[in-house]
Specification:
Length: about 130
């Protein structure tokens, strides 16, 4: 069975994750930090942007995969997948901003959570059909 929607958002998020990882490496080189974040706030922010992405995206993609395999409507899968990708971009932008409150980070986090919870509820609804 093919899963074109998950393939699309999986690929986009994989590329984003490598961009975030490269940002960590670049900041470590710039601030001469071999392991961890040292005393650099820039390295810390880059590391957390990458780490947060790596923590939440796999679960969201797994839920999208489950929905697609269960025959979830393509339109809604694209809404969820597209929302996830935009949310991760917003979170990345937000985590780089030092001022607080930070709407980009908040919206990115909230939408990521909503995609995961919404996907879980959607899977439960599809399961009960």
């Amino acid at each position: 069975m093919q899963v074109p929607v998950v393939a699309l958002y999986g690929a986009l998020n994989a590329i984003l994750n490598i961009v975030l990882a490269n940002n960590v490496s670049s900041n470590r080189r710039k601030h001469k930090v071999s392991i961890g974040t040292g005393d650099s706030e820039e390295v810390l922010r880059a590391s957390r942007a990458h780490g947060n992405n790596a923590e939440f995206v796999p679960l969201a993609l797994l839920m999208l995969l489950i929905l697609e395999l269960m025959g979830g409507p393509s339109l809604w899968l694209h809404v969820l997948g597209g929302s996830l990708f935009v949310a991760r971009l917003l979170h990345w932008r937000g985590i780089l901003i030092k001022k607080s409150p930070n709407p980009y980070r908040f919206i990115g986090t909230a939408v990521t959570y909503l995609v995961i919870v919404g996907s879980a509820i959607f899977a439960l609804v599809l399961r009960s059909r």
